[in-house]
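ARCHIVE CARD
Drawer: 12
Card no.: 0347
Subject: one protein chain, sequence and derived structure
Cross-reference: see card 0346
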Amino acid sequence: MRFFSLKKKKYATLTVKNSKKIDEKEQQVSKEVKISGIWEKCPKCNEIIYKKDIENNLKRCPYCDYYFSMKAYERINLLIDKDTFQEMDKNLVSENPLDFPEYKDKYTNAVKKTGLNEGVISGIGKIFGMDVSIAVMDFEFLGGSMGSVVGEKITRTIERGIDLKIPVVIVSSSGGARMHEGILSLMQMAKTSAALDRLRAVGQPFISIPVNPTTGGVTASFAMLGDIIMTEPDALIGFAGQRVIEQTIKQKLPKGFQRSEFLQEHGMIDVIVKREDMKNTIYNLLDNIIGD
């Protein structure tokens, strides 16, 4: 009886110890999850950075100046005068015209994740008091892919520039045409390009700002049709991926291929601008063009 009692006590002690270890492990996991939510690792210099420091530094790494991506509304706040932005076409949403498998679920998840109805925000606003028609793409929404609604909103942004006789500014960040909508997404390339031809005919300027990353059908259409094409440092801009191109042409591509500095050197980009100077540069360019 005494032996049983001692064994029971020993067993109980072990149970308490094991329970304590489990609690400590759960607390450690909880602590790691909490920390991961407030810190960010820079993909360029590998420094661990407090997220607030990134946000307070225009979404840039304070150590190496790496540019983290900006959400569409963050970009609007960066470029447009406070309390002057009027969003247009906010309630336009995509359907599933080809009945593509799982497209509806992916679309719904993108809406929940970003709080947006589509991959672009469009409207009118002022840059240092100058009226502009502006659209900003958001890469977090299905990779900034261009479906029917994105193409429609970009086209309407351009048409507002025509109707209101004001400049057009479009910030692109996209993986290209939206595969879930097939040929309908590819048609947006011609649609947006045709609208820009009409804008050019009435003499209104278009500043295109492809930022990291801008690829595929967006690069192959309106993003590279600006009167002025500007971007940020080290932005990836191109059509197909580097590996695909190398496999196709059977040649090794140069270092930095498809980065903004390489593209400027070869005449594809007009100007590379730091994020903090973007608004001033847009205003000065438009002021000079309209003034002329």
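Annotation on reverse: Confidence is low (pLDDT under 50) at residues 1-22, 29-35. The longest helix spans residues 2-36.
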